[in-house]
From TrEMBL:
This is peroxidase. It comes from Helianthus annuus. Residues 1-76 form the Plant heme peroxidase family profile domain. The record marks R7 as: Transition state stabilizer. It comes from the Eukaryota.
C-alpha cells in the first residue's frame, strides 16, 4: 500500500501544489481528478486516506486538512517499508 499512497501524494502535489485535489469526489460541475481517465482505476489508496481523515475528524474536527492527512500518511507508510543498504 505504501507505493499507492506515495503515488497519490505525488499526483496531488505535482502540478499545483499539495491541495488534496486528487481526493475530491465528482460534483455536478466537475469530474474530479480521482475519476479522470488517466487516474480512473489506476490510482489506489483512497480508502486509507479517507479512513485516516475520518479518525482525525473525530478527534479534532475541522482542524487538519486532507492534504495534511495525505502527507502524514505518505510519510508513515514509507517509514514502515524495508530499506535496502547500498555499500
Amino acid at each position: 500500500m505504501a507505493a499507492s499512497i506515495l503515488r497519490l501524494h505525488v499526483h496531488d502535489c505535482f502540478v499545483q501544489g499539495c491541495d488534496a485535489s486528487i481526493l475530491l469526489d465528482d460534483s455536478p460541475s466537475i469530474i474530479s481528478e480521482k475519476n479522470v481517465l488517466p487516474n480512473k482505476g489506476s490510482v489506489r489508496g483512497y480508502e486509507v486516506i479517507e479512513a485516516a481523515k475520518y479518525e482525525v475528524e473525530k478527534l479534532c474536527p475541522g482542524v487538519v486538512s486532507c492534504a495534511d492527512v495525505l502527507t502524514v500518511a505518505t510519510h508513515s507508510e514509507e517509514e514502515t517499508q524495508p530499506r535496502l543498504a547500498f555499500f
